[in-house]
Amino acid sequence: MSATTRTNTPAAIPAAPARATTIRRFLFRGERPGHRYPAENGGGSAARVRLRLLAAFLPVTAVLYVGAEALDPRGTDQVVTSTGVALKLLPIAAAHSSQLYLSGSLSVLALGGLAVSYAAIAALVTGRGWVIATIAALLGGVGAFAGAMLNVIGGISLAAAASAHMARGAAARFLVTSFGSVPSQVVEYVYFASEYATPVVMGVALWRSRAVPRWLAVLFTAGLEVAESMGAIGPKVVLFMLPFAVAMILLAARIWRAAGRHTPMTGATPAPPAATSPDTAAAALPTTSGS
């Protein structure tokens, strides 16, 4: 046989490296390396725990809110617009400075919990009305933040001015200056606008979604509106805020049950096995003949 005659003997295929086995399983059998994806129910468990943690904020927020209003000394829920109002509030605040500190701190915590509660309630609305619920959660968060700032400027600053060793006239001027500042005016307008608008927007979202009974949507809206309009009237405020507390507990129970029904989030769906096996693919590789 001459050197120019071509042979039909196939060339030997070199052995694949150790890693090729994994690559072939990945390409031809649709397998995925197990370390790249979490357990099948890992994502569902995480989502369930987080949603139930959000649900726990609702009853805690109700307790903080009711406690803050009940402990607020009578007559101290006024906005200081003049020196006369400040001189009227200072003796009351001086006689109940510790109570005013406590109620102001609880109010800040309650407003922070209310912001989280709005986000938790919005998580119930996944179908019709979800856009409205998202807007309500955003408004509620902004309004609660502004309300917390206003409570620091108002109740806590009033207690500090009353308990400080300074003349009444100087303390009154300090309060008038604090309440009359531009940041104080901005947060006051934002808070009062959002605190009455947000419950209505969230109530509309719950009503449209039918995620909860419609009577519960009405109870939440009306109860929160009444709770936010209550003044410093002493412990009897608990009776007026009871519908709000009941609505928050019922909504928390709904969110808790919804978390239990949450569909687990799995990793990427494995690709269907290909009809071609590694051996068949190797046999189908083109061979070159020597010369």
What can you see in these coordinates?
- This protein is an all-alpha fold.
- The chain has one domain.
- It is 68% helix and 0% strand.
- The protein contains 10 helices and no strands.
- Helix 2 packs antiparallel against helix 9, helix 4 runs antiparallel to helix 5 and helix 5 packs antiparallel against helix 6.
- The N terminus and C terminus are likely disordered.
User: What is the count of DSSP helices, taking H or I runs of 4+ residues?
Assistant: 10
Shape: elongated
Quaternary form: single chain
Order of helices and strands: HHHHHHHHHH
Number of domains: 1
Strand fraction band? Answer: under 5%
Span from first to last CA? 11 Å
Task: Compile the SSE list and pairings.
Layout lengths: L19 H9 L13 H30 L11 H13 L1 H26 L7 H34 L4 H13 L1 H28 L4 H16 L7 H24 L17 H6 L8
Keywords:
single chain, 291 residues, 10 helices, disordered N terminus, mainly alpha
Give a short synopsis of this structure.
This protein is an all-alpha fold. The chain has helices at 20-28, 42-71, 83-95, 97-122, 130-163, 168-180, 182-209, 214-229, 237-260, 278-283.
